[in-house]
Amino acid sequence: MYLKYREAYPSELSFLIDVLQSDSSQNREDSSINEDELLKLVSRHKLIGYIYNTLSIKVSVETRNQLKTQYERHSRHTLIFVRQLILVSQKLEKWNLPYIAFKGPVLSQMLYGSPLVKHSVDLDFWVPLEHIEKCHEALSDVGFIRVKPRITLTPKQKKKNYTISHHYTYVHKDEKVVIELHWNITNPFSLLPLSFNEAYTSSIRVDLNGHKINTLSYEHYLFYLSVHGSVHKWARLTWLKDFSSLLKQSDFQQQRAACRLADRFQLTKPVNQAFLLASAIFDVAVDESLIKNEDFSNSLFYTTPLKSMTRGGSRLNLEKIPLLFYKWHIRDSRIYRLSLLFRLRTHFTDWEMVRLPDNLFFLYYLLRPFLLIFRAVQGLLCRNG
């Protein structure tokens, strides 16, 4: 099935997939490669840290110089993020605050032996809800400023925000490093209702430049990366590359534990999807006993990500209905599916625009449609202005 779809892929995308497999592209030469398009794909899929050394020897001098500039920029950016990851983790430990750092440099170190492979847009810290406010103080103490939401929340807003969102966003005042401070690992929580305590109990420590960082266990990473990639239709090659590398490094017991988690949380589809895609695209050996549905490989849920790899991350309204249909099938849960249908509610962006006292909080629900339209028009005017 994958080979059928790959025939329609641009030659540049197929070439990058081969390069990511590391061994299969060692002697490949392809005169049909458009190097400008190749550079665009490297940027869109966030691949520079994964393939710089391998790709540089296969392209022209001009493209090689552009890749070098991109890699140097990526390395400087990532080193700053690594520094702040270490400093923040040390601060949380000093304050006896439990945390799990996930994705980003810590996953890069865990999978590739270097924090410089993965590109980091932000640093993710997951902490128990009861410690969020204390963690907010700790982050403020080391120079981070909360930017989402920017306002000081009222007691009612704070309580409501914990149910409709899953993290606060911070930016360092000097180094511009972004941190997402999570109290849930996904939004909505009903997508992956894994508790922090359960994940923390089996968490592991990764050595990052002599500093031990708490992160997810292999089975929880297999489970989480499956769901995360599935939600985004595996549109970025780095997500599947990470999952495939994790799959290679994990043993059968860890893989089976991830599948048991999938059964328990009614998330077998995204885990099946991840295993099959890793096998098809990156040729990772997968034990067939772990795949729960024999017909799954012919389903729309399997073929959708094969198509999405050629597309950008568009958020056009025309795509929202098909995306809703796709997301509907990720988890076989009534609560999760209801949350997909009823997401138009109040949000902290509304509270930032209109300040109301807690006794008038109910008015936000009435104002929501008008504020959405206002922001849409405002955004359109800004783009055209």
Please tag this protein with its features.
globular, five-stranded mixed beta sheet, 385 residues, two-stranded antiparallel ribbon, 9% strand, Beta Polymerase, domain 2, alpha+beta
Commentary on this structure:
This protein is an alpha+beta fold and 385 residues long. It has 18 helices and 7 strands. The protein has helices spanning 2-6, 11-20, 35-44, 48-56, 61-94, 104-112, 132-141, 155-164, 196-201, 218-231, 237-249, 252-264, 268-282, 300-308, 320-328, 334-341, 348-353, 363-384; strands at residues 100-102, 123-126, 144-148, 167-172, 178-182, 204-208, 211-215. The strands form 2 sheets. Strands 1-2-5-4-3 form a 5-stranded mixed beta sheet. Strand 4 and strand 5 form a beta hairpin. The model is unreliable at 313-318 (pLDDT under 50).
Q: What's the layout of helices and strands?
A:
Elements: H1 2-6, H2 11-20, H3 35-44, H4 48-56, H5 61-94, E1 100-102, H6 104-112, E2 123-126, H7 132-141, E3 144-148, H8 155-164, E4 167-172, E5 178-182, H9 196-201, E6 204-208, E7 211-215, H10 218-231, H11 237-249, H12 252-264, H13 268-282, H14 300-308, H15 320-328, H16 334-341, H17 348-353, H18 363-384
Parallel strand pairs: 2-5
Antiparallel strand pairs: 1-2, 3-4, 4-5, 6-7
Helix pairs in contact: 4-5, 10-11, 10-12, 10-13, 11-13, 12-13
Residue stretches low in confidence (pLDDT < 50, at least 5 long) are 313-318
Shape: globular
Q: What's the architecture of the domain at 84-216 in CATH terms?
A: 2-Layer Sandwich
Tally the beta strands: 7
CATH topology of the domain at 84-216: Beta Polymerase, domain 2
Radius of gyration over C-alpha positions, nearest whole angstrom: 22 Å
Q: How far from one another are the termini?
A: 46 Å
Look at the structure and give the mean pLDDT: 90
CATH class of the domain at 84-216: Alpha Beta
Number of helices: 18
Helix fraction bin: 55-70%
